[in-house]
Structures are given as structure tokens and as C-alpha cells.
Amino acid sequence: MKPYIFSLLMIFLALQTVSAQDDQQPSGCSITDGCLNYSLNGATRHDADTYILSYTLTVNCDARLEYIAFELPEGSDADEPSNYFASQPDFTVEDGKSGKSNKIATDYNAIQFTAKQQTNISHGTSYTFEYPIAVEDYNKLSAIRVQAKVAGAAPSNITFDHRVCAPLPTTPENAMPECRIDLGAAVFGFTGATDNGDGTTALQFAIQNNTAENVTSVAIEVPGAPAGVTIVSDNNGSAYHANYKYKATYSDGILLFEAQNTNGYTDGNIDYFTFTMPTAAFNPEESFTISLATSAETIVTGFNTVTCEEDSPIAPLPVELLSFKGKATPSGIELKWETASESNNDRFEVERSVDGKSFEQIGSVDGAGTTSVKQNYNYTDHVSRTGTFYYRLRQVDFDGTQDYSKTIAVKLSSLPGGGKFAVYPNPALGTIVTVSVLGTGADVNGGVLQIVDMSGRVMLVHQVAAGSREIEVSLPELQLPKGMYVVNLLQGTDKQTQKLIIQ
């Protein structure tokens, strides 16, 4: 029995009149026994391992319903403390079987709803009963027995094949999609992109929170910060209705889902974040940046919807290179690579080409020497024009032995910051972040530099002297927690914006 469902699961036993049976209901899912008609309506998902079973009982005689009981596996309770149900006005609810409580009338383990004195279900009245059941308990039952009794009559007993009448949904809500990145504390998944045929494409990401803290926000950075991005909401309002509730906004290329009610979005539970963007702006080769924040930590990842960040090892470098990727970001072209092991590795030289044939060295990153521990590297190329660029790594040993990685291509459609300034390294892994002004003339006439968190709080205000080309920002001095930030460069009435990830 999971205590967190106390605060999450609001189950209301709604009194309703049913005029006809659903014609689409499978055979055997609506059963009449005497004056009682039972219907197993189906199963809906509550969380990753709990489902809600729904039944409707119609009493077609003058006799008053006394109780109804639904079978559970031996030794199991419904996935909610029975005293919670006892607070509802029409029935008292308990788990058990004969001998455990005088309110349990079945000879098998069950959850029983016993009508209170003022409750009169009769004369054609229908009542819908719901209770939560763990997937494990659902699978233990070969069928579900139901017993009900009206005043003055013997108990009525019927049996439902719940796997036919209430199959567990096979939609993506059941599990994380195959395209996913598992970071331990959180798993990020991409469920797919659908061309709507009206110039827009709908995308959906799934996020599983494996921490013990409720989610406070989810942010998705859309590559290129296109206009026309909208949240998919089933009420067309500002709150996105998924499994939990958020206030959803889009600004400067960032979709922000701020928690309104995410109680229980913990311990492996999943939610889904859906939005549309202009089809012309959706490039599957580009990566989305996604962050999940709780009160204790922020987990951030880049997500390429084509590769799902699951690359095969790359040969023939002497080091065991697991991946080598590049993407266009607001700071420039960001290159990342990862090694599983290294032997006498002095450095990586980063080489660039505009035609894929002639390469030149543009930077160097120190290697880890000899190690069997996974290493992560990054390098940002602050290019000054748009186009397609080709990159490769030249790996050099201490003895001068060298070899090359595969070549990757990255397309840059617009200059970082409109050609005004760049922020690097991004994501920030160390203690210093550099803001570099890329332009000339009026672009370096000073201004004001700001760093703003996702709630709008200004974390830094720095006066930029005229002629400044680079400003170094000390992260330890600002005491900024991990997460996503906005960097603004204000010059008169001109405002340039970049995103910053702190890991």
C-alpha cells in the first residue's frame, strides 16, 4: 500500500443515471443477474504502476442496495487506505474478507462498499464505483468476482474477465518510449512528431522523475527559438492538463511548465509534455535542451530526436570514443564527445572544414591521459557566419601518435545572438562563464549584462564598458544553482538574449 496516494488520488463515487448500455462494450462486460445490471467500464492509468477500475451497478427493482464487493488478490488491499473511502458520504469502504471484518460479506478477499443508512440505490438508479489497483495485483487475478446484495434477497455473484473488459491502456502513458535518455535521477523520452497538415508539427516528450521530490518545473528549449510555438492544452487555457497540472508559457525559445499541482510526481512517475511548432522550423537533426527541476536538484540533458543520444562506439581512435556530436546553439556550434577509456591520451585537436575536405585546427582540449573512467568533453565554435560546417577530432598521444574520428556536419541557420554576443561554455560545467561580444563598432559600445532565472529573478547586473570584447562571470560568486537561465545584453533600446545551462 503506497502512502503517497493519500494526497494524490481523489476518487469520487459519482451518482448518475444511466439510460442505456454502451453499444461498443465488449461481450461479457455488461452482465444482468436478477434485478441487478453490472458493467465493467474500463481501466484508466493513475501513475506508472496503478490503475483505476470503474464499474457501474444499476438496481432495477424496489429493493435497496446493501453492499457491493470487488475481488482483490489474497493478502492485498486496494491501493488506497480504506479509511479514506470511509469519509465519502454514501458508502463505507473496507478491504478484507469474512472473519476479518463483519462488514465484509464475501468468502474471498475484496474491497467492499457498504451503503450507509441514508443511501438508497433502487428503482432503476445507477451508481459508479471506482477503486485503485496496482498493476501487480491486476495481473495476479485471472478474473474478478463481484458480489452485490439488495435488501430481502440472496447475494448476487458474477465474474468479469478484466483483461477483456478493462485492458490496461497501451498508449505511451504506460511506459517510457524507446527513444530515451536515462540519467538515473530522471529519464527523458521522445514519443514522436506528428505533422498536423496545417503548417505545424506536434511533438511530445515524456519525463520520468525518479527522485523523491515533487517536480517544480520542466523547461524545454526549442532549437532556433521559432515563433508560433504553442502548448497543446485540452482546455485551450494557460494550464497544460497532463497527469499533473502546470502553468505553461513560451518565451525566447523556452517552453516553461511551472508546477501548479504535481504532488506525487516522484519515485518513477511519468508525465507528458506536448507542444506544436512550425513544421518549417522543426529540424530533427537539431537537439532540444530539457531540464527537470525539483526542490533539491535540476537534471538537464540535450535531446536529439533522431539518435536519442544512443550512439555506437566510434573507431578507429586509440581511445574508446563512445560518441561525437555537434549542434547549433544560441552560443555557437557546440561539440560534445565522450570516451569510455583512454590510454596515453595527450589531447584532442578540434578541426573544422567548410567543404568536408580541407580541415583546419580551431582549438585543442586536453585529454585525460590513461583512464578507464568515462570522460566527457565539449568545445564551442563561435562561428561568424551561417552555413554547414564539418568537424572532426584529431586525437594525439603523448608520443605523437595520432588518429582521427569520424566527420560530422552541423548546419547553422542563424548567427548566435543575431551576431551580437555568445555565452560559453554552455552548458557551464566549471566555475567561469564567458560572455563574448561578436560584432564590431556599435555592437561593442558597452551596455548592461543581466542573468535572469526562469522565475524572472535578476541574479546579476553588470555594466559592460565600451569596447569590451569578453566578460568573465564567476559562478561561485553568484551561487547559482544548477538549471536554465537567460542572459540579456541591453544596449540602449536593443536587447539581445541567450540561454545558459548550469550543470
Automatic annotation (TrEMBL):
Is the keyword rRNA processing in the record? no
Q: Which organism is it from?
A: Pontibacter populi
Signal sequence span is: 1-20
Superkingdom: Bacteria
Q: Which UniProt keywords apply?
A: Signal
Could you tell me which Pfam families the record lists for this protein?
Por_Secre_tail
- Name recorded for this polypeptide: T9SS type A sorting domain-containing protein
Q: Where is the Secretion system C-terminal sorting domain?
A: 423-502
